[in-house]
Automatic annotation (TrEMBL):
InterPro entries: CinA, MoaB/Mog-like_dom_sf, MoaB/Mog_dom. It comes from the Archaea. Residues 4-162 form the MoaB/Mog domain. CDD domains: cinA. The lineage of its organism: Archaea, Methanobacteriati, Methanobacteriota, Stenosarchaea group, Halobacteria. This is Molybdenum cofactor synthesis domain-containing protein. Pfam families: MoCF_biosynth. Gene3D superfamilies: MoaB/Mog-like domain.
Length: 232
């Protein structure tokens, strides 16, 4: 399963807010075997959000959009997602009933709070007020991290892919001197290889087979100046 994550908010683009939602979602999706192909930040603009959602919906199995839900002037995500699918925004009776069960009446909230894309599946907000929605394979979640996490957990089982096994080997050599061995590693084993330099180079090996990952890691330890792991 391939997915894209779209985070909405001018505050992300100017650096006022750290994009922790994207990091958290990528981690949770990866743990379920889902390959995240894109992480994109877009401004609070209907046309930009709609364009990206439309493009990613056509290209990937699922799209998760976070941020910009609610009744204020810059909360335009629902309008944009509706536009991406050529739908109207409409009062959603299920979302209104759910809020009523929590003690919110129509006079307590702006009318737009329960306006969602027509024919969507509403998602209750267990940690807040503004509901989310699922439109075909696009999941629209709040931007407040506690609300986003609670809502994602309601639909998490709908995301599944091929689980992978990851091993790392620390190597005490310059990364540039390891390039030929990385190429050999990919040729010999069915793995993906990443390298992350610091005080040492951390070689990350990812494979669908645990045994294949173990064999590749053993090859790196044999053919490079691997840092010995300290015993506990």
């Amino acid at each position: 399963m391939n997915a894209a994550v779209v985070t909405v908010g001018d505050e992300l683009l100017v650096g006022d807010t750290e994009n922790t939602n994207a990091t958290w979602l990528c981690d949770r999706l990866d743990a379920r075997g889902v390959t995240v192909r894109r992480v994109t930040v877009v401004p609070d603009e209907v046309a930009e959000i709609a364009r990206v959602v439309n493009e990613y919906h056509a290209e990937y199995d699922a799209v998760i959009v976070t941020g910009g839900l609610g009744p204020t002037h810059d909360d335009v995500t629902m309008e944009a997602v509706a536009a991406a699918f050529g739908r109207d925004l409409a009062a959603n009776e299920e979302a209104a009933a759910w809020l009523a069960e929590r003690g919110y009446s129509g006079s307590d909230l702006a009318a737009e709070t329960t306006h969602l894309p027509a024919d969507c599946r509403p998602l209750p907000n267990e940690a807040g007020v503004a509901p989310g929605a699922v439109v075909e394979s696009v999941y629209v979640l709040p931007g407040v991290p506690t609300e986003m996490k609670a809502m994602f957990e309601l639909v998490e089982d709908e995301f599944a892919g091929t689980l992978t096994h990851v091993l790392t080997v620390d190597v005490d050599e310059p990364e540039s001197e390891l390039l030929d061995r990385f190429a050999s590693l990919r040729d010999r084993f069915d793995v993906r290889v990443g390298s992350y330099p610091g005080e040492v180079v951390t070689v990350k090996i990812t494979a669908e087979s645990e045994a294949e990952a173990e064999r590749a890691a053993a090859w790196v330890r044999e053919h490079a100046d691997a840092v010995k792991e300290e015993s506990a």
